[in-house]
Amino acid sequence: MQSCPIKTRFAPSPTGLMHLGNLRTALFNLLLARGPAGGCFVLRIEDTDRERSSAGAATALMQELRWLGLDWDAGPQCVGPGGPWWQSERAALYAELYPRLEQSREAYPCFCSDRELQYQRETQLAARQPPRYTGICRRLSDAEIRVRLGRGERPTLRFRVPAGRTIVYPDLVRGEQRAVTDEFGDFIIRRADGSAAFLFCNAVDDALMGITHVLRGEDHLANTPRQLLLLEALGLRAPWYGHLPMIVGGDGTPLAKRHGSRSVAALREAGYLPGALLNYLARLGHAYGDIGLQGIKELAYAFDVQRIGRAPARFDPQQLDYWQQQAVTEAPVAMLEVWLDGARVPVEQRQRFVEILRANVRFPNEIQEWAERIYGSLPPPDEPAREILRAAGVEFFETALRLVDEDEGLSLQRLRQATGLRGRSLFLPLRLALTGEPHGPELAELLMLISPQHLRERLCRASKLARAR
Ligand code: GLU
After folding, report:
1. Whole-prediction pTM value?
2. Are 331 and 390 within one domain?
3. What are phi and psi of 217, to 5 degrees?
4. Strands (E), 240-386
5. End-to-end CA distance of the chain, in Å?
6. Given 336, 367, 386, which residue is the final one in a domain?
7. What does the pLDDT average to over 112-119?
8. Ligand 1 mutation pick, 29, 46, 243, max ligand atoms within 8 A of CB
9. What is the pLDDT of residues 82-108, one digit of tens each?
10. Which residue spans within 326-442 are E strands per DSSP?
């Protein structure tokens, strides 16, 4: 594992359902690791925030990743070295590192209470200063610290940000970045309850796990220079960081429910296929050119961090549905057959039914509606449909009925010969009579699915409707 030329990771905090933004981050990291150079993709669960994290959310997240085919090479549920993969189980590793920073005085205990910190923040804001830790506990003497610890006070541990430095680093996506340390306050690396704070365990774990590249959301941009300082102080190697542009809705604001965004679980339940989500998300903020629906391997080979845009990526539900249509068209039949569970399609016709219908449906409910149209009962036709049936005339349907009786089925060619009709005047009334719909899959193919008994019933019905005034 240590010899992977590229080692990326997905490091979710299991605090709720996985959404498209998170999934895209996971996907980009996986694609980077699966490129031609080869690499490893690690899953690490960042569950140090005990109140907000849950094992259930972590399990669900792993199920979603597996469903999508985003398998990790190292992480929970994998055998092999390198763990633990849950941050809540890594406390002993962190505990070894704090004393290094305390001894070198790059970290100090901070006794400020939440109330005091709140007051400091409000005072700074009122004075139109950016809120940052004022440094009150920076200057405590060893004696004062001992006294306060002796009183049973439980401090946090803060990293002492060095003054007057400019941190310059190349961001994989955004190019060179600069940050001035005088603008940061000293930040917490260990909470008062002894648990590791995000900036610390996130950076330390990347280094300890040998992560080489981190692609993550732009919302972490301000964390990166702080984490670089921290790793430098610890003598640990920092990964390359790249910050992905935000995903926004049609109105340019961060993606939310009102833009049509749903959790991955909700999309799965609605019938979206893994290939649709992956192909759509791989292109959300990354340019692929015109390569059509691809598998993960192909997407990975064509993935290039230089093709990640810097502008916010706009979520477009129609594009997602376009990829769904592509994925349905190319899916193995067995994957779509499960959509027919509970539908009226006879077992021996399921495969055929899927093959015929797949170009006309995108979701399970649509194929179920077709199953009902073909094998169930038809809703009463609307007025334009009645008009078409009347225009075709009783004679047309009676001729079709006679052919069904003679042939125990209906051939379009025979109907064409018998009626002298062709094109639209032949197909449209027949389609409406048999499916209730003016559009749909090839009529000749649909005819192979409909039993003679059903053909008779529907043609009789159409004949009656054609007679009605
Ligand atoms: N747990 C963090 C998150 O979900 C990880 C951030 C990162 O990728 O570094 O936002």
Report:
1. 0.93
2. no
3. -65, 150
4. 240-244, 247-248, 313-314
5. 78
6. 336
7. 96
8. 46
9. 999 999 999 999 999 999 999 999 999
10. none
What amino acid occupies position 323? W
What's the full length of the chain, in residues? Answer: 469
User: Mean pLDDT score of the chain, rounded to an integer?
Assistant: 96
| E strand or H helix at 156 | strand 156-159
CATH of the domain at 383: 1.10.10.350
Burial of 390 (C-beta count, 10 Å sphere; 0-12/13-18/19+): middle
Ligand 1 atom nearest to CA at 219: 10
CA-to-CA dists, residue 92 to 187, 196, 272, 396, 416, angstroms: 21, 10, 42, 83, 81
Q: How many angstroms separate the CA atoms of 265 and 343, rounded? A: 23
Atom index in ligand 1 nearest the CA of residue 217 equals 8
CB-CB contact of 75 with 43 (8 Å): yes
CA torsion sign, 351 to 352 to 354 to 359?
A: positive
Do 50 and 15 form a contact (C-beta atoms < 8 A)?
no
Residue-range definition of the domain harbouring residue 325: 257-336
Q: At what angle do helices 364-375 and 350-357 cross, to 10 degrees?
A: 110
Q: How far is CA 107 from CA 98, 302, 328, 346, in A?
A: 8, 44, 56, 71
Total structural domains within the chain: 2
Decide: 216 in ligand 1 pocket, CB within 6 A. Answer: yes
